[in-house]
Amino acid sequence: MARLSCYDGHNGYDLDMAFEPVLSTASGQVIRAGWFNAVNHNSSLGLWVAIDHGNGLISAYGHLSAILVADGDRVGTQWQIGTSGTTGASTGPHLHMSIYYQPSWNVTDPFGWSGRGRDPNIVRDRYLWVDTPATRLVVPYLGGSRVYPGAILVDDGARGWSSTGAWRSDFFRTNIRGDVHWTNTGGARATATWRPTIPADGYYEVGVYVNDTHATSSWVPYTIYSINPANPGLTIAHTVRLDESHIGIFGGPFGTVNTGTRWVSLGTYYFRRGTTGSVVLSNMTGESGTQIAADGMEFVPAAGGSNAPSGGAYLGGNINVQP
């Protein structure tokens, strides 16, 4: 379990999670998914997700590096909704998690009040956790800077990688095998595609390598094309938004931050054997004057399963449990 920390005046818990998959605490509907402050990305929770659980409670997850959901999505218990990071008012990679009461967003302590005196909160703090989670998901940790052992790697410029539009190449020692391709946002459309050769049908966690050069966009779209295991003839397209600007060396609200290069999880998906699956990156971010980088993509066999909601995204959890 990740280490927890909290302090006076802080309306939640900080979990020591460095670029790790973030799972929903319970089923519900996504009511926030994006930047907390669209103008200042070093403000408050940064890239965040909030879920209305339909029982008067809202869970919120902040400082994410990627979000796998969108407003209005329905999610189940322990579905991957994002990947932790260090966006917003953050001093380094971690996850901020808060629980609120509807309708006024009154924060509560999900571990309850255990002091000797009276609970000082304006709402009653109760222990909200269940002893036995309804679902379990086991995925590899891809958040380091090295290729995961046994991963299927597709590197830019190598077999399985293709591009459209104008891309430039560069070489840095921190890149996968040295090279990286990059392009600008706000101009003519450009795409990059990673098409792995999958050895066997199954679930694979997809990770993208974000280097510390030519990666300054804060709203990069990666679309994963996978298969619905319940209907192998159906291809599913799901778009994940990733922030590249808070990876590597950058100026944070409390000074310079250096996360180093990172693999960032884009979620767990079902792929058929062969080359039918792919990941496509586009420079259509809605920004102007930033750059996006295309380096390595890895596909790592994952234990457990994933759910397929009506929207088509594989978000994690137990294949036999639907919300």
TrEMBL record:
Residues 258-300 form the Golvesin/Xly CBD-like domain. SUPFAM superfamilies: Duplicated hybrid motif. It holds the Pfam family Peptidase_M23. GO terms for molecular function: metalloendopeptidase activity. Residues 9-102 form the M23ase beta-sheet core domain. PANTHER family: MUREIN HYDROLASE ACTIVATOR ENVC, PEPTIDASE-RELATED. This is Uncharacterized protein.
